[in-house]
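Async update (no meeting this week)

Hi team, since we skipped the sync, here's where things stand on the single-chain job. The sequence we agreed to prioritize is pasted below, unchanged from the tracker. I ran it this morning and attached the output directly underneath so nobody has to dig for it. Comments welcome in thread, and please keep replies under the output.
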Amino acid sequence: MVLAKHTDEEIIKGCKAGKRYFQNQLYEKYKRSLFSVCLRYAVNMQEAEDILQESFCKIFTHIGDYKGQGSFEGWLKRIVINSTLSYLKQNKKDPLRYNNVEKIEHVAEEEVEDEDDIFSNLSPQQCQTILKFIQELPVGYRTVFNLYVFEGYSHQQIAQILQISENTSKSQLSKARRHLKNKILQWMEKGITTNKPNSSY
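Output:
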């Protein structure tokens, strides 16, 4: 589909009017960035696609709630995160016993920290490998890791969102990082071994 050059304001106005054309424009413009969010929380492509579909249903249903305050993409992203947490809860993949997962509040842009973005200096192939490691994390580790590292929530905010203690959030993050570090080190060592030149002639 060829994406016409419409501003977010035009797309939002058209979606609020229920026009399918502008709904398609919104979907085409943001599907890739929002799907990448889904992938980080899901265990595979199919689950991520299910979450994305549910997310867009909620986006089109609640587009009228967007008041133009703050980043529109940030608003879309919060709906995706809410949909993800709801999906985990509904599918009983919630060892942390999430409650009230529909109500992630706005986090100011200045509160979001990017320094922990482990994808920033990696090649696409390396990103895919790291993403696979994240998907393989136990769901509790994976959820807290994503909320803290990529979404920029504090442990206090995560504790409120997931209805857990701050210490539990910190513990889950620490275990997730340790697990990922071990996976990455094993992957790097394997690569070094595989690429080691043959010393026998």
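Quick observations from my side:
The helical segments are 8-16, 20-41, 45-62, 72-90, 124-135, 139-150, 155-162, 166-195.
Residues 50 and 182 are 30 Å apart (CA to CA).
Reply here if anything looks off.
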